[in-house]
Structure formats: C-alpha cells, structure tokens
Design brief:
Chain lengths: ~325, ~260
C-alpha cells in the first residue's frame, strides 16, 4: 500500500492522530471546536455519498435524506421528548426506509434517471414541508434545546463516534466482496450481471448505507444547530456539498472524501470571513477546476504527481 | 440442454431477432455465424438474461429461463465470456479469476479447487497470477476472461466474439483454448465473425442474417462436404453456403436467393 511510510511509523502516526483527536476539544477554543464539528459533519456526508458513488450512481438529493433525518429527530423530540441520541438514530432509520422506496423505483433504471429523481425528491420534500405547517412547522422551522445542554465537547465526541462508524463501514466495504460488486456495477453493469451480481440489489444496498449515515448527520445537525428550516436542510446547497467534497478529494477512496472535506471547508470558512457575499461560489470553482485538471481528485494528484517526486528524492539521497 | 424456440427480441421498438430457434446438446460445440449486426450477440445476451424475449421460449436443462434475471441464470450454470473481455484492469489476474466465483455460492465454496483446474488449463495464468490484468496482452486477457467465466462452474459456456481485436497468432491460441475447454466437458456456444476457424472446431453451426436464421436446421460442418467457398467467407458467411448440401433453406430471403443462384452458375 503506502510504501512512503513504513509499517511501524504508520502505526505510531495513527496512535498520535487518535490521541490528538481525543484531546483536541480540551485544548481548542469554542470557535475551532465548532468548526471541527462542522467539518466532521461534512465528512460524514461526503463519505456516505461516496459509498453510493462506488456503484456509479450520482445522488444529487442527499439533502432529502439529510432533511428527513433532521426533521425526524427534531419533531420526535418536540412530540414525545425522545432523547436526542435516539432521535438521531430514528432519523437514520427513517432515511433508510425512504432510500429503499426510491431505490427500488429508480435504481433499476440506468444512467441519469436516478440523479434526476433524487433532485426531485429533495425539492419535493421541501415543498411538502411548507404545505403542511401543522405537522412540520412550515417555513418557521422547528427548534430544539441545545444538544447535551450546549456542551460542545460532548457533541464533538458524538459526531466523532458517528464519523468513526462511517469510516469503519467504508473500510469494511473495501475489504469485503461488496467492493468488487460495487466496482463491477460501476464499470459495466452487464458484465456484473453475468457474474452473478444483481445490480439493483447492490445499488439499493449502497443507497441504504449512504442514507443511514446521511440521516444520522441530519439528526445530529438539527439538535446541534437547535433550529432547522425546510429550505436549509432540504436545500440544493447540502446536496451539492455532498458531491463536491468527495470529488475534490478523490472518488472511491477512504481518505479522499475526508481530505476533500477538510480543504473545502477551510476554503469556505476563509472566504466566509473575507468575502461577505457569495462565498459559496467556491463550490462551483472547485468543481470546475477538479473536473478540468485533476479528474482523480487530490488523492489522484498525490499518487500521480507528488508521491513520485518524494520517492525519487529518497532513492537518490 | 439449451433450447430456443421461435424467439422474437426487441430493443425498445426495434426488432432485432425474428423467430430464432436453436438447440444445443450436452457436450457440443455450436457456432453461430453471421455478419455485423445480424443479431449474434443479441442471441447470447438474450440467453444470459440481459435482453427479454417478446415471443417464444428459452429452456435450459428442461427449465424455462426466459423469465429469470441474468444473475439467476448464471447460478443455473450458463456463463458468458463477454465481448471485449471486460476485465478489471486494476486487479490482479488471480483477483479477476476469483471474482468469477465470488457471487455464486455453489462456485464460491469450491473456488480454490476450480482455480487449480484453471491454472492447469492455462499455465500462463498461474505464472501471471499476481500481475495486474490490464498489463497482459490481448490474448492473455482473453484467457483470463475465459477463466473467470469458468470459475462459476458453468455447464454451458458462451463466447461472444473471442477473436475480436486479436492478432492472427493469438486467434489460433484462443480457439485452441476453446477446444480445450470443450474437452473438459463444458458445452460451448460460440458467436464468431471468423467463420473459417470457428467452423473447424464446431460440431454444428447456425447462420444468422438480419436477425433471422437462414436455415431452419443447423448446418453440417464436416470439412469433407466443404460447405464453404474460398474467398468471400470472411466478408459474408451466408453467401458461402452451398445449399445443395443441406437442402433448401426455409426462408431464404430475397438477397440470399440471388447469391445462391449466382454461386450455382
């Protein structure tokens, strides 16, 4: 795998990283902690989008699942005072149920139909939410008390746990037969089919996994943010963010979405402070630059251009 | 073993096959020849379940399979070597082979045994086991593709143009391996444009033109009876058939009639 770092120092690095991640909230101030939580949340969205992308399906409606997760946990709290952690889980499960429905309807079709349906799905949910304000709170949104009484450090650990779960799931997929099935379907559905793979089943499965984590992220967001409105959680912004970050970092990898998210979020945060309006243009610019100049994302850039430089140097010296 | 009866196949509204019937018996090597666009690949796609039929029936081992999904049909023992090989270039030869068995439980439990069998059939694959499939030559890739199909332990193996895009020497090699596989007891259905060579190894052949079987029965390929003329074989197999050997065709078609009469002069 990574020959640049030997096995021993790799383990040391990982241990160091884990220790750092654990003690991070103790040393950081509130602003950076908030930024980190936002980044972790985005990482979950990016990684779970990438799980589905491994089967060759491009979802442009992750916001629908995100919003369902957010509203499910917020409304369940409002109605029956369900504890936030359970509410977040309920959001994830509800998102899975919706994903199964949409998946079986559209994932048997090939090409762009699924992408179109997902956009329509997210947008339709936003409209429905505005149409039945008695149940959903309408345009006024829903508010919940702060998560863990506003304790950001606990919130940090919760999102860290979800993120760890996502990364572990992706890792398990990569190690298992599932990855081959996903790759086969992405490369050529017919060939996958004659190898004994039922493409629809695996695509729906990937969509379910993706939906679960996106729903969890939505649930977390609603409690952490304490306030959600339809046009924010069901908005196209969320869906686009879900796909820009992994494409920027590098598709079909564990690290790609993670690195892509960090960079996109840092750029966005920097622009948010310096450019008061329209900082979201960063998403568009990043997408254009990546598609034109580095189709394999940052990971591809590293593997093709930067790593060889290092290897050459070290072999000379 | 395999029995197609009067099938019609459409792509959307466009009809691709008309009243196609054919039968394959256990242990046979059957070749379907025909020019570009005659519908040869469509027949294979239909048998493997990727296209659905509008009319007729397909039976495999006495069971109707035309309503099953492609992945269910593979499990029954019908495997296909797809046109253009379609390997996973970034995976090793061994991984590519193992993939062939990975999703079929019956084959997965016997995969190491099958792998040894395939290595004994194609020793070159054993040597190249850890090499990336994308770095192999076209002929070697074709063997990997055949090996991958064999990993599912098929009773019937279908080849879609195995000689496509290969150098003449490699084409010989590929046809030799097809014969080898046949000698291992696997029934073979082959689709080819390379008529001369594929007929050499076939027990029987069918000729397809514009989506229709030219003859109702399969044609005899005994070299003694020499059903092929010399030059034009590669271009148009239909014009090469000496109809007097096999009797009159059921539905010769306008074009065919002209060509046959020209030949008899």
């Amino acid at each position: 795998m990574n020959r640049l770092i030997s096995g021993k120092s790799f383990i040391v690095l990982i241990v160091l990283a884990v220790v750092l991640i654990f003690f991070y909230p103790r040393v950081m101030d509130s602003y950076f902690l908030h930024l980190t939580i936002a980044i972790f949340l985005a990482m979950i969205l990016a990684s779970s989008w990438d799980i589905l992308a491994r089967t060759g399906q491009v979802s442009v409606g992750q916001a629908g699942l995100f919003g369902i997760g957010a509203y499910a946990s917020a409304l369940l709290y409002q109605w029956i005072h369900l504890p936030p952690v359970l509410g977040i889980l309920a959001g994830g499960i509800l998102a899975v149920i919706l994903a199964v429905g949409i998946g079986y309807l559209t994932l048997r079709l090939r090409g762009i139909y699924f992408s179109i349906t997902t956009i329509a799905f997210a947008e339709a949910l936003a409209v429905i939410w505005l149409m039945i304000p008695d149940i959903t709170g309408g345009a006024m949104g829903v508010s919940t008390p702060p998560l863990f009484g506003g304790n950001r450090i606990l919130a940090y650990y919760l999102i860290l746990a979800i993120l760890a779960l996502v990364i572990m799931t992706v890792w398990l997929i990569e190690k298992s037969r599932l990855n081959f099935a996903f790759t086969a379907i992405r490369q050529n559905e017919d060939v996958a089919n004659v190898m004994g793979i039922n493409p629809t089943r695996y695509k729906v499965l990937a969509f379910m996994i993706s939906a679960f984590f996106t729903g969890l992220a939505g649930g977390f967001y609603s409690h952490y943010n304490t306030y959600i409105i339809p046009y924010e959680v069901f908005g196209l912004n969320v869906s686009i963010a879900c796909l820009v970050m992994p494409i920027f970092g590098g598709l079909y990898t564990i690290l790609g979405p993670v690195i892509g998210t960090i960079l996109v979020k840092v750029i966005e945060e920097f622009l948010r402070v310096t450019v008061p309006y329209g900082h979201q243009i960063a998403y568009g610019l990043i997408l254009v630059v990546v598609v034109l100049f580095m189709p394999d994302g940052l990971i591809g850039l590293w593997k093709k251009r930067i790593k060889p430089l290092f290897l050459k140097k070290s072999s000379v010296g | 073993m395999l029995e197609l009866k009067w099938i019609d196949v459409y792509y959307g509204n466009i009809q691709a096959l008309w009243d196609v019937s054919l039968s394959v018996k256990e242990g046979e090597v059957i070749v379907i020849v025909g020019s570009n666009g005659a519908g040869k690949s469509t027949i294979l796609r239909t048998i493997s379940g990727m296209n659905k039929i509008k009319k007729g029936s397909i039976e495999f081992g006495g069971q109707r399979i035309d309503l099953l999904r492609a992945d269910e049909i593979v499990r029954l023992g019908v495997s296909m070597v797809p046109e253009g090989r379609e390997l996973f270039p970034r995976l090793s030869v061994r991984e590519n082979l193992e993939l062939g068995a990975a999703y079929i439980d019956r084959a997965y439990s016997r995969r190491t045994e099958t792998l040894q069998w395939i290595y004994s059939l194609f020793p070159i694959l054993h040597e190249r086991g850890s090499q990336l499939a994308g770095t192999l030559s076209g002929g070697e890739q074709q063997m990997v593709a055949i090996g991958r199909a064999l990993m599912s332990r098929p009773r019937l193996l279908m080849f879609d143009e195995p000689s496509l895009g290969l150098a003449p020497l490699m084409v010989d090699e590929v046809f030799k391996t097809v014969t080898k596989v046949s000698q291992e007891g696997v029934t073979i259905l082959l689709v080819e444009q390379n008529v001369r060579q594929s007929l050499k190894m076939a027990h029987r052949a069918y000729v397809l033109e514009n989506g229709r079987m030219v003859t109702k029965q399969s044609i005899d390929v005994d070299p003694e009876k020499c059903i092929l003329c010399g030059e034009c074989v590669e271009i148009c197999p239909v014009s090469a058939i000496d109809m007097t050997v096999n009797g009159q065709p059921e539905n010769p078609g306008r074009d065919l009639g002209r060509r046959v009469s020209r030949k008899s002069q």
